[in-house]
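Researcher: I'd like a candidate sequence for this fold, 245 residues long. If you have to choose between options at a position, lean toward the conservative one.
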């Protein structure tokens, strides 16, 4: 069973590819989180967790959901993350999560994919994204073969710890907020941002999106907007949106 959480599509693509090659079931954690669905999961094949790296660790909402969910059928799990440059020491924290859930890691792998964190203005031109995606897709295919054959993944050398250990708590405390989000006159009130938000943090008020206080900074709303009508303060203005359907 391939479980995935994805804000702008990198992890969704990765999970879909793994599920196709390994002939496995695909489960969206976005939908489970959005619907507060913590029903037990059961799989005969090893579980595969696919999600992005946020500030050097997996998203807190994913970790919280995993902790609230019971896993049956097998105790084996593959740990796959997508990241812009490095996973830092995300594996360390995933291993701790596995220990708490009594799950046995079958290996960790990180896939470098296009940068999507537009709240920091850190997106790249489309030409760069295509090159990064092509390289990332090749690695996805390689690890999918390991998972299909239920072999342990090759070990990866860990990155530096500063983001995962030091900066992650600081970023969640000081930077992870929805306050700067606003819509421009290009907004047509389609409600797609409401649909995409995994935390139900966006509501339409007289046809205009309004953000609450419960934000994961997944960038699904701003990046998927078909009119590019959402901005994150001044940081996103003029920046390339990245969203992989």
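Model: Candidate sequence:
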């Amino acid at each position: 069973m391939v479980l995935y959480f994805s804000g702008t599509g990198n992890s969704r693509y990765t999970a879909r590819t793994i599920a196709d090659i390994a002939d496995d079931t695909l489960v969206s954690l976005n939908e489970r989180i959005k619907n507060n669905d913590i029903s037990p999961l059961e799989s005969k094949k090893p579980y595969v967790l696919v999600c992005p790296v946020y500030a050097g660790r997996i998203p807190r909402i994913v970790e919280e959901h995993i902790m609230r969910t019971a896993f049956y059928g097998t105790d084996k799990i593959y740990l796959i993350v997508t990241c812009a440059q490095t996973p830092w020491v995300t594996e360390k924290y995933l291993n701790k999560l596995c220990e708490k859930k009594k799950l046995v890691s079958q290996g960790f792998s990180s896939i470098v994919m296009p940068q999507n964190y537009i709240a920091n203005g850190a997106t790249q031109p489309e030409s760069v994204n295509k090159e990064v995606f092509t390289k990332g897709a090749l690695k996805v295919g390689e690890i999918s073969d390991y998972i299909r054959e239920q072999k342990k993944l090759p070990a990866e050398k860990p990155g530096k710890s500063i983001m995962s250990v030091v900066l992650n708590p600081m970023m969640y405390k000081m930077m992870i907020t929805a306050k700067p989000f606003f819509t421009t006159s290009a907004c047509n009130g389609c409600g797609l941002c409401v649909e995409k938000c995994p935390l139900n943090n966006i509501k339409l008020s007289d046809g205009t999106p309004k953000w609450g206080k419960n934000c994961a900074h997944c960038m699904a709303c701003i990046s998927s907007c078909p009119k590019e009508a959402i901005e994150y303060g001044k940081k996103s203005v003029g920046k390339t949106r990245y969203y992989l359907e």
